[in-house]
Amino acid sequence: MNILALDLGTSSVRGLVLDADAEPRPGALARRKVHVDIGDRGSGTLDPAQYLACLVECLDELAAAGHLRDVHLVAVSAQWHSVLPLDPAGAPLGPVLTWLDTRAMAPPGNGGPADPDAYHRRIGGWWHRGYWPLRLPWLRARCDTPIARFAGLAEYVLGQLLDTAPMSVSMASGTGLLDLRTLTWDAEACELAGVRPGELPELAPTGWSGRLRAEHARRWPQLADVAWSVPVGDGAASNVGSGCVDGRRAAVTVGTSAAVRLLHRLPAGEPLPPLPEELWRYRVDHEYVVTGAAYSSGGNLYTWAKRELRLPESRELHAALARVPLDGGAVTADPRLGGDRPPGFAPAGSGGLRGLSFSTTGVEILAGLMASLCRMVADDLTVLESTVETPMEVVLGGGAMAASAWWRSAFATALAPRPVRHRAEPEIGAIGAALVALGRVPEAGRLAMTDPLDEGHAPQRSGAAS
User: Fold this and answer.
1) Does residue 287 contact residue 368 with C-beta atoms inside 8 Å?
2) What local confidence, expressed as pLDDT, does residue 163 receive?
3) Which of 65, 151, 224, 356 could pair covalently with 217 via S-S, beta carbons 3.0-4.6 A apart?
């Protein structure tokens, strides 16, 4: 049995075919870059039509190459927190607000939740511009056409392809509107958002699966009878794909952005454990939650510095980085070029550099930025460790980690004395979504291959490292 895994990311759309153990089939990968419109005043948006077109192109490419012939399941990893307004026919009334967009503000006179601590524990997030309770009123105030309902990017895109596309509890947990225990829309959060349940996506029940619409089944006949599973939030999927599925192992993932997360079992209906005020908590599915912290900077730091500082190409750049101390050397930085992710409120443009001299090189500036992110992650990992009783090991993952040996070593330095390993497979989100769809989350630690940071050793399974 093969699995088609889709990754609906911020910087790209990817489709890849996996085997029955969720390992990528050689050559069965299609990718399209997407353009995020980032403005000086905090905007960070995507064009929904262009995004859908990129996904369709990926499916066309895989079909033309014969990779969809033996697919029996479609799994989806999708970016959390996105939202777009729709008209009564389901057509977009504007661009998609991504997690990068920092413009939303509370409406005048709206002071937020009555008990912020209880609210945070219940929904896993905060009264913050990154969540729908602030984003929906802000969108209403700026939309010239009445808004009929709201959707996330995943629900909009899949809604164009499938017979139905309800919102998974994983995606709903990233809106800041879901009660994580009851798995229903939270009454107080909805009141703060000024939204009625009919204006929100339908929540997918346990066991839901979708099918292609007839016109798309004709376009991709190999997928005509294939079940599509509910989307999994990208952070949750990355944890599973990294093999970090219990309290012994934390995932540090660096793709476009970065995050540190811990996953554990918490079936729907069970009491929610305490949640440190610095951390968020979202749903993987009806059985598991993921707790952590996220950052607006990650691989985008590397991309920005390489472009704006005119750094050398990869091999020469890696050699130059190898000469810089792993703590970043003389340059210290604030890497928040895109502002804060929740719960912080620093606006876009908050990045900064110190320790520059006439001898400072562009490579040293890049190293200072990367090392500063390592230290931010280390601080939040300490908070995350306070929620468990056993020592942790850390698994590094994501495309940016796979691309930079220096950054991996810098993370190992910042996170010491914890054991640090690396999941070299860049498609951890898609793999994790497939394992969730298969109901094999507990097996992820055994299936995920990780490498020791000393890259002269052979890969070992992460389950064998603990």
Assistant:
1) no
2) 97
3) 224
Please give the distance of CA 106 from its chain centroid, rounded to a whole number: 25
Q: Do 344 and 128 contact (CB within 8 A), yes or no?
A: no
Q: For residue 11, give the 3-state DSSP assignment.
A: coil
DSSP code for 88: T
Radius of gyration of the chain from Cα atoms?
21
Q: What is the DSSP pairing of strand 249-254 with strand 393-397?
A: parallel
Give the Cβ contact number of residue 33 at 10 Å. 11
pLDDT tens for 93-142 read 999 999 999 999 998 888 899 999 999 999 999 999 999 999 999 999 99
Token pair for residue 348?
Answer: 């876009």
The closest of 208, 211, 189, 253 to 448, measured between CA atoms, is 253
8 Å CB contact between 18 and 2: yes
C-alpha distances in angstroms, 57 versus 133, 173, 370, 434?
34, 29, 34, 21
pTM for the whole structure: 0.94
Beta strands in 99-157 (DSSP E): 149-151
Amino acid at 373: L
Q: What's the CA gap between 466 and 213, in Å, rounded? A: 46
| DSSP three-state, residue 51 | helix
Instruction: Give the DSSP per-residue string, 176-212.
Output: T-EETTTTEE-HHHHHHHT--GGGSPPBPPTT--B-B
Per-residue pLDDT band at 453 (split at 50, 70, 90): confident
391: which 2 tokens? 């020592």
Question: What phi-psi label fits residue 402: left (phi over 0), alpha (psi between -120 and 50 degrees) or beta?
Answer: alpha
- Measured in whole angstroms, the distance separating CA 339 from the mean position of its chain's CA atoms is 17
Degrees (nearest 5) of the Cα angle 150, 289, 170? Answer: 20
Q: Which of 79, 77, 68, 78 is nearest to 4 (CA)?
A: 68
Indicate if the pLDDT at residue 464 is higher than 70: no
CB 229 within 8 A of CB 73: yes
Cβ neighbors of 406 (< 8 A, separation 6 or more) are: 318, 321, 322, 324, 326, 367, 370
Q: How many CA atoms lie within 13 A of 150 on its CB side?
A: 28
Length of the chain: 466
Q: Cβ distance 235 to 283 under 8 Å? A: no
DSSP state of 366: H
Q: What is the pLDDT of residues 305-341, one digit of tens each?
A: 999 999 998 899 999 999 999 999 999 999 999 999 9
With contact defined as beta carbons under 8 Å apart, do 48 and 92 qualify?
yes
